[in-house]
Specification:
Chain A: Belongs to the TRAFAC class TrmE-Era-EngA-EngB-Septin-like GTPase superfamily. FeoB GTPase (TC 9.A.8) family. The complex is a heterodimer of chains A (781) and B (89). Chain A is of the alpha/beta class and 781 residues long. Chain A has 30 helices and 12 strands. The chains are: A alpha/beta (781), B alpha+beta (89).
Chain lengths: 781, 89
């Protein structure tokens, strides 16, 4: 009944037959010498002697897979894949083992994120070290996947296609919901991969004593261990079991239901064939799960365990024997007391899922998230933008002075360093506080268990545009800043839903756009400025709904509305240390992924601004003759590379002038507005500053030529006497057009180049159509 | 609180707080019905309604597990009411 009777089945066999796998862990008596050879370090990886959360002297060390973990690589070291239902504590367990050394990467050919890392395990019996590759997968109810995330989980577990063959499957099961976990376990057993069962939430389950031993005995001594990812309890035993399964695998002598055929059996039908095959056996798997529940003393869906707790019974339950004789006439009776023993989580849910209080509390929580990413993060952003920038600029000035004196300070190199490199670094750093806040809030919402409740509360509303209830959170965050809003899409369980939400987020009117609204609203609408600004937010919501409906019927017509059944985990108090590790890991991924792209673009914009248009004299402008008159007495200084005094005298300005006519139908076909919108692509916050620069005006209204006056004059001219309509069109264009550079970069990182490009194109199209429509209608009115 | 029960077999969405019911069938396509089962709700399983809301849906106790189901999905699940006892007033 042990490893000598293992079944050669499933994809692992196929891989061995075609020589793709050295067969770690599936050959009985796998020699230690062979293991040493196979475990030779073929990879470059950073060695960390200790990682957080584990006492000195532990038998394993986790270290990052490699310095280039962003790329997916095949490996010959044993591969251990973690699978389980959503919200069972699988990722908490995984992170407890690998900690900050787990790297996040895209599964091959998808934008679904999986975590992976390498672990060095020391056999306590022999003190020999060996490396394992550990892979965490998205939660899935079944290998018969119904979403891209579940498909990645299933294919990774089964070694399908380009996924390497796993040696061990760690099936994480929530001890409070074993029935669901046993269904997946049956599929794991039938895959032929050596299993280890990790039971989580054991402290919360009212389970019969010795549940691990009972499950193991029922399954012919397959290793089963209770673990707690939060405290690390049971992790050492888990790793010891994994080690044994790698070298001397224990498999059941018979399949749970039906052994999964090899990959060749699905050569024509592909992955759909696998899903169909698995669904065909669903009823028998349900029966198997029920059998296992009974075998370990759970009875029918856990009823026996409840009865053993001495639960409160209602008067109705005591007379249950007569319940079958129900007459068909209408009767009324008092609502009975519940038979189920109410937990603290149940009592909290009575408030949080109340039809009235639930909504109020939900909105309050959303407001807290919004405030955290804006008001709380803002002081830190300001500190970075002012103090840190000041220090770096001073340092650059000092260095240039040391190297080349005053000439150094006047050179284009100095401009490149200060206005290009340092500006890029500061820009990236200013996104860190709001991103950190959103990661903290997401962690708290997920780890406490509230996020599932939030999804339930908002499900009905979001279903109107075909999205999961959890899509509400990123959209709310988007009204603060689009960038952390994209990070919040990771809470959605479906890749397609994440992408669709990611396409809608840029249409949320972020706080950076507000500065533009304020300047234009007060310049053109005076007493009605508030109404004009409020209208922008209303338009934002309408556009989100409309674009959502359009996307749902076109690009995302395949997004099926799945039955909404979500497990509500017990409430937990989050662990600070785990939160810090998780947030730090995600922040580093963002910085690593976004910084180079953002900095590259900023350097391009610097370059365009640094190239003077030939023949221009500083202080003299063909666009603004009044400037020439004002500066007539000043000694003209020739612009040079890196020293262009006016935007319009640079290549950047020239490009703006050539693009400006495109906006004539929208009423703001002047180069100043165009240049401002171009700079707004980098960051919406600079639009106002760019307008000030372009109009040579003081935005504070205290200068000789204030910005409001300059705007009114300019828009009146470009709109042929309809400045208010043109201003409204400009505001709507600002609302809807391409989000800032960082957002586009993050879209690319999360969803790929195609979606990022689509975001830019859709944004420009929608913005242009809306702006032209609003102006033309305004002219007619 | 009072509620009406007129049929032995009703939709899960018509169940009210405190009712215990046994799942009989799921009126969805095969793929979706299997998914409901994979989530843990299988014919023959007994559930108890902990919360019922026209706005959100229902929260049911399934053993020691808690599941939230939206109204549309709950309408597709047919159950046999087990309790409470119905007494004519």
């Amino acid at each position: 009944m042990h490893s000598g009777h293992h079944h050669s089945r499933g994809f692992s066999l196929l891989w061995r037959l075609i020589g793709r796998d050295e067969g770690h862990g599936h050959k009985p008596g796998h020699s230690q010498a062979h293991a040493e050879h196979d475990y030779a370090a073929e990879h470059n990886h950073a060695n960390h002697s200790q990682h957080a959360g584990h006492a000195a002297g532990s038998n394993y060390d986790a270290h990052n897979h490699s310095a280039h973990t962003a790329e997916y690589t095949t490996t010959r070291i044993p591969r251990v894949v973690f699978v389980g239902n959503p919200n069972v504590g699988k990722s908490t367990l995984f992170n407890a083992i690998l900690g900050a050394d787990a790297a996040v990467m895209n599964a091959p050919g998808t934008t679904v994120m999986i975590e992976s890392g390498e672990l060095t395990y020391t056999d306590p019996a022999t003190n020999r070290k060996e490396n394992w590759e550990l892979v965490d997968t998205p939660g899935t109810a079944s290998f018969a996947s119904m979403s891209p995330d579940e498909e990645v989980a299933a294919q990774t577990a089964l070694g399908w296609g380009s996924h390497p063959d796993p040696q061990v499957l760690v099936i994480t099961i929530d001890a409070t919901a074993p029935s669901r976990g046993f269904y997946l376990l049956s599929q794991a057993i039938d895959s032929g991969v050596a299993p280890v069962v990790a039971l989580t939430m054991a402290d919360l389950a009212h389970q019969p004593e010795g549940i691990e031993q009972r499950i193991s005995a029922a399954l012919e001594n397959i290793p089963v261990v209770s673990v707690d990812g939060r405290t690390g309890k049971g992790v050492e035993q888990l790793l010891a079991h994994i080690h044994r399964q790698i070298h001397n695998p224990v498999l059941t002598s018979a399949p749970a239901v039906d052994p999964l055929p090899g990959e060749e059996a699905f050569a024509t039908s592909g992955w759909d064939g696998v899903r169909t095959w698995l669904r065909r056996n669903a009823d028998r798997r349900f029966q198997w799960a029920s059998w296992l529940l009974t075998a370990i003393g759970y009875g029918e869906a856990g009823e026996e365990s409840e009865a053993s707790e001495g639960v409160h019974t209602s008067e109705a339950a005591e007379t249950a024997a007569t319940d079958q004789a129900i007459n068909t006439s209408k009767v009324k009776t008092a609502s009975p007391a519940l038979a189920t023993h109410l937990t603290l989580s149940d009592r909290i849910d009575a408030v949080l899922l109340h039809p009235v209080w639930g909504i109020i509390i939900f909105l309050a929580v959303m407001y807290l998230v919004f405030e955290a990413t804006t008001a709380v993060a803002q002081p830190i952003v300001d500190f970075i933008d002012n103090q840190v920038r000041g220090v770096l600029n001073s340092g650059a000035d000092w260095l240039n002075w040391q190297i080349a004196g005053q000439q150094g300070l006047d050179s284009w190199v100095h401009s490149l360093v200060v206005d290009g490199l340092i500006d890029g670094i500061i820009t990236v750093l200013t996104y860190v506080p709001p991103m950190a806040m959103v990661f903290v809030m997401l962690y708290l919402l997920e780890d406490t268990g509230y996020l599932s409740r939030a999804a339930f509360v908002m499900n009905r509303t979001m279903r109107l545009i075909g999205l999961d209830g959890r899509a509400f959170l990123p959209l709310v965050v988007g009204f603060g800043c689009n960038l952390p809003a994209l990070a919040a899409t990771r809470t959605l369980p479906d890749e397609r839903q994440r992408i669709m939400t990611g396409l809608l987020i840029p249409f949320t009117s972020c706080s950076a756009r507000l500065s533009v609204y304020v300047v234009l609203a007060f310049a053109f609408f005076r007493k009605n400025a508030g109404i004009a600004i409020f209208a922008m937010y209303v338009i934002s919501l309408v556009v989100i709904v409309l674009i959502g409906l359009i996307l749902r019927r076109t690009q995302f017509s395949d997004l099926k509305n799945q039955p909404f059944v979500i497990a509500l985990p017990h409430y937990h108090i989050p662990r600070a240390k785990l939160m810090v590790v998780s947030v730090a890991k995600r922040l580093w991924n963002f910085i690593r992924g976004a910084s180079s792209a953002i900095m590259s673009m900023l350097l391009v914009i610097w370059l365009l601004s640094a190239i003077p248009v030939s023949g221009t004299l500083a202080g003299h402008s063909a666009q603004n003759p009044e400037i020439n008159t004002a500066n007539a007495s000043a000694e003209p200084v020739q612009d040079s590379f890196g020293k262009v005094s006016r935007v319009e005298d640079s290549l950047y300005g020239t490009i703006a002038q050539s693009v400006a006519p495109v906006f004539a139908p929208a009423g703001f076909g002047n180069w100043q507005a165009t240049a401002a919108l171009m700079s707004g692509f980098v960051a919406k916050e600079v639009v106002v500053g760019s307008l000030s620069q372009a109009y040579h005006a003081d935005a504070s209204d205290s200068g000789s030529r204030d910005l409001s006056s300059a705007l009114r004059e300019s828009f009146d001219k470009s709109s042929n006497g309809h400045p208010q309509a043109a201003a409204l069109a400009f505001m709507v264009f600002t609302l809807a057009y391409t989000p800032c550079l960082a957002t586009v970069v993050e879209e690319k990182r999360l969803f790929g180049r195609k979606i990022a490009a689509e975001t830019v194109i859709i944004g420009l199209l929608v913005a242009y159509i809306l702006a032209v429509a609003i102006f033309q209608i305004g002219v007619l009115l | 609180m009072f509620y009406d029960v007129t049929m032995k077999q009703i939709q899960l969405s018509d169940c009210r707080r405190g009712m215990r019911a046994r799942i009989q069938a799921c009126n969805l396509n095969e793929e979706q019905a299997i998914r409901i089962g994979e989530m843990g709700l299988r014919p023959g399983d007994t559930v108890e309604i902990l919360l019922s809301s026209h706005l959100f849906g229902q929260v049911i106790a399934h053993g020691s597990e808690r599941l939230a189901i939206d109204r549309k999905t709950a309408r597709s699940i047919v159950v046999n009411v087990l309790s409470p006892t119905l007494k004519t007033l």
